[in-house]
């Protein structure tokens, strides 16, 4: 082997070592980027999930409010209907009596 051949092999070995370092650095950089992307994605998912949970809570609260409103309206309606029925029961005999009087009383027109 000659000195130039030995020098060429040495240069190739050094180039291989340098290429290996570059590949290792690239892999480490890729792993680091993937980990950063996972961390960022997890943070974004947590933010979106928190926002959606707030929206759900608002919708559920509105639903509860509407249920309460519906129940209150139903109670008011029931109370009013009960009062109307009670008034009807109290006044139906008088109304029937007035109708009978109106129908049976003949007024002369002269």
From TrEMBL:
InterPro entries: V-ATPase_G. GO terms for cellular component: vacuolar proton-transporting V-type ATPase, V1 domain. GO terms for molecular function: ATP hydrolysis activity; proton-transporting ATPase activity, rotational mechanism. It comes from the Eukaryota. Keywords: Coiled coil, Hydrogen ion transport, Ion transport, Transport. Residues 31-69 form a coiled coil. NCBIfam families: V_ATP_synt_G (TIGR01147). Subunit of the V1 complex of vacuolar(H+)-ATPase (V-ATPase), a multisubunit enzyme composed of a peripheral complex (V1) that hydrolyzes ATP and a membrane integral complex (V0) that translocates protons. V-ATPase is responsible for acidifying and maintaining the pH of intracellular compartments and in some cell types, is targeted to the plasma membrane, where it is responsible for acidifying the extracellular environment. PANTHER family: V-TYPE PROTON ATPASE SUBUNIT G, VACUOLAR ATP SYNTHASE SUBUNIT G. V-ATPase is a heteromultimeric enzyme made up of two complexes: the ATP-hydrolytic V1 complex and the proton translocation V0 complex. Belongs to the V-ATPase G subunit family. This is V-type proton ATPase subunit G. It comes from Coemansia erecta.
């Amino acid at each position: 082997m000659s000195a130039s051949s030995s020098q060429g092999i040495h240069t190739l070995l050094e180039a291989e070592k340098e290429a290996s370092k570059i590949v290792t650095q690239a892999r480490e950089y890729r792993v680091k980027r993937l980990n950063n992307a996972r961390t960022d994605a997890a943070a974004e998912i947590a933010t979106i999930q928190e926002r959606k949970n707030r929206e759900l809570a608002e919708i559920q609260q509105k639903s509860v409010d509407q249920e309460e409103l519906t129940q209150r309206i139903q109670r008011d309606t029931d109370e009013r209907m009960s009062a109307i029925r009670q008034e009807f029961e109290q006044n139906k005999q008088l109304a029937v009596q007035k109708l009978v009087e109106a129908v049976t009383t003949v007024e002369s027109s002269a």
